[in-house]
Design brief:
elongated; two-stranded antiparallel ribbon; 17% strand; alpha+beta; 193 residues; 5 helices; Endonuclease, Chain A
């Protein structure tokens, strides 16, 4: 497949539009990324979903069936460019459904042979970013739940349900104590003893 490149201007002269083989123009992930090793790899990578993946949908169906309500693909922390796949706002629980390849699952981790050094660095940066995300969310009072794409959605949903229910109880209890003044060492009516 031929891909036309735009006409450009070099030193005031018009340079003719060149045609490149599609393979030569393929990249994996934009600027700074190596070229795809084949047209097949390029096509496969371009079809990778970043949201609403099958594991996410199966998990959401289980959670919804349990009566849990949530938001999807949200940034729980204002000013932080990190999204959670499933967000339980009042309970402050953020669920991340991690793909085995992209997040280096300890069970299903693979190492691409083409562009091996680049992929090793890329996947390591993903792991570091995941740990940093967990830390930043925790600092803001959120609990992160990570679910691997290979996990049974029923088992994962039960785990999430327990965490959400526990957090709701904890947060509701602490709000009630604050409203009554008990958490601040105050008696009824919020006045100091």
């Amino acid at each position: 497949m031929q891909v036309p490149l735009p006409v450009s201007v070099l030193a005031g002269q018009r340079v003719q539009t060149r045609m490149l083989d599609h393979r030569a123009a393929c990249t994996v992930g934009g600027v700074g990324s190596p070229r795809a090793s084949s047209l097949d790899v390029s096509r496969r990578m371009s079809r990778q979903r970043t949201a609403d993946t099958n594991p996410e949908i199966r998990l959401r169906m289980q959670l919804h069936g349990m009566g849990l309500r949530y938001r999807i693909n949200r940034r729980p922390i204002s000013g932080l460019r990190r999204s959670a796949d499933i967000v339980f706002g009042p309970a402050r629980v953020a669920v991340m459904v991690d793909g085995c390849f992209w997040h280096s699952c300890p069970i299903h981790r693979t190492s691409p042979k083409a562009n091996a050094a680049w992929w090793r660095d890329k996947l390591r940066r993903n792991e570091i970013r995941d740990r940093e995300t967990d830390l930043r969310f925790a600092e803001e009072g959120w609990q992160v739940v990570r679910v691997w794409e290979h996990e049974d959605p029923v088992v994962a949903a039960r785990r999430i349900q327990k965490i959400v229910n526990r957090r709701r109880t904890q947060l509701t209890g602490s709000r009630a104590r604050r409203a009554g003044g008990e958490a601040a060492g105050r008696g009824k009516g919020g006045l100091k003893k």
